[in-house]
C-alpha cells in the first residue's frame, strides 16, 4: 500500500531548486571573485597607473565616484553569481520572488509593516540597550556616502536608497531565505537569513535594526509571494534614513 507523500515544509513558491550548500558556495564566490579582481587591478597598476589611483582613492574613501564604482562592481558580481545559479537550475527570476502582485494589497502591507517596524525597532533597540552593557542604539552609521550625501546627493541616493534594496532583497529574501527554509522551515529560515542580513552591516545597532527589518521582509514575501513590495519597503526605509542624514 502506497504511503501519502510528505508535505513540503515550505510553501511551494519557496521550494527553490538550490540549497544551503549553494548559498555557501555563492557567498564564497561573491567574495572570492571580488578579491581576484582587486588582485588583478593591483597587478595592472604599475602598467596602468590610473587603475592604481582608482583603487587607492576608492579604498581611502577620498573619491566618492570610485567608491560608487566599487559598489556597482559588488552588486554586479552578486547578481551575476545568482544569475549563474538560475541558469544552472533552469529557472527564471520568478524563482527569486520577482513576481507580479496586487498593487493595492501590496500597498496595504507596506504601510502596515512600515508603521509596525518604526515602533518595534525603537522598542527593540531600547530593550537591547538595557540588556547589553555598552550597546549604543544611537551610534552613527559609518558610510562614505553618508558624509557625501550633501555634496554628492545623486550618487548617495543611488548608493544608499536605490541599489541596496534591489541587491539585498534579491539575494537575502529571494535566494538565501528559501534555501535555508527548505532545511529548517520558514520560521527558522526567516530568523537565520535575517540574522545574516543584520551581521553583514557590521555595526551593532544597525545589525539589530536590520535583523528586525529582515524578519518583516521575510513575512511580507511569504504573504505576498513576491519580493517586489519588500524592495519598495526597503527603499522607503532607506530613504527616510537618507532624509535624516541630509537634514543634519
Written account of the structure:
The chain contains nine helices and no strands. By secondary structure, the chain is an all-alpha fold. The chain has two domains: 74 residues, no CATH class; 156 residues, no CATH class. α1 crosses α2. The longest helix is centred in the C-terminal third of the chain and has 32 residues. The chain is globular and about 55 Å long. The protein starts with 19 loop residues before the first helix and ends with a helix.
List the helices and strands and how they pair.
Blueprint: H1 20-44, H2 49-60, H3 64-88, H4 103-131, H5 144-147, H6 153-184, H7 186-199, H8 204-224, H9 228-247
Q: Key features?
A:
248 residues; mainly alpha; 2 domains; globular; disordered N terminus
The computed structural class is mainly alpha
On the 0 to 100 scale, the average pLDDT is 87
Helix content: over 70%
Major β-sheet annotation: none
Q: CA-to-CA gap between the ends? A: 71 Å
Instruction: Give the topology string: H per helix, E per strand.
Output: HHHHHHHHH
Number of helices: 9
Number of domains: 2
Fraction of residues in β-strands = under 5%
Short synopsis of the structure:
The chain has helices at 20-44, 49-60, 64-88, 103-131, 144-147, 153-184, 186-199, 204-224, 228-247. The protein is an all-alpha fold and 248 residues long.
Amino acid at each position: 500500500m502506497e504511503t501519502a507523500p510528505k508535505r513540503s515544509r515550505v510553501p511551494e513558491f519557496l521550494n527553490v531548486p538550490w540549497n544551503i550548500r549553494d548559498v555557501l558556495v555563492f557567498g564564497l564566490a561573491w567574495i572570492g571573485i571580488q578579491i581576484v579582481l582587486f588582485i588583478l587591478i593591483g597587478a595592472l597598476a604599475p602598467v596602468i597607473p590610473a587603475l592604481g589611483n582608482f583603487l587607492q582613492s576608492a579604498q581611502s574613501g577620498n573619491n566618492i565616484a570610485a567608491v560608487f564604482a566599487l559598489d556597482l562592481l559588488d552588486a554586479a558580481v552578486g547578481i551575476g553569481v545568482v544569475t549563474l545559479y538560475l541558469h544552472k537550475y533552469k529557472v527564471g527570476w520568478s524563482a527569486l520572488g520577482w513576481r507580479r502582485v496586487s498593487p493595492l494589497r501590496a500597498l496595504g502591507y507596506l504601510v502596515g509593516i512600515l508603521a509596525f517596524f518604526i515602533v518595534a525597532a525603537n522598542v527593540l533597540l531600547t530593550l537591547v540597550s538595557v540588556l547589553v552593557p555598552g550597546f549604543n542604539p544611537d551610534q552613527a552609521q559609518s558610510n562614505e556616502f553618508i558624509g557625501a550625501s550633501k555634496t554628492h546627493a545623486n550618487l548617495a541616493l543611488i548608493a544608499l536608497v536605490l541599489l541596496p534594496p534591489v541587491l539585498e532583497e534579491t539575494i537575502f529574501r529571494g535566494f538565501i531565505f528559501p534555501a535555508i527554509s527548505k532545511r529548517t522551515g520558514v520560521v527558522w529560515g526567516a530568523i537565520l537569513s535575517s540574522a545574516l542580513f543584520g551581521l553583514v552591516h557590521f555595526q551593532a545597532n544597525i545589525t539589530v535594526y536590520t535583523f528586525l527589518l529582515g524578519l518583516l521582509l521575510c513575512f511580507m514575501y511569504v504573504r505576498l509571494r513576491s519580493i517586489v513590495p519588500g524592495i519598495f519597503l526597503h527603499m522607503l526605509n532607506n530613504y527616510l534614513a537618507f532624509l535624516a542624514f541630509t537634514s543634519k
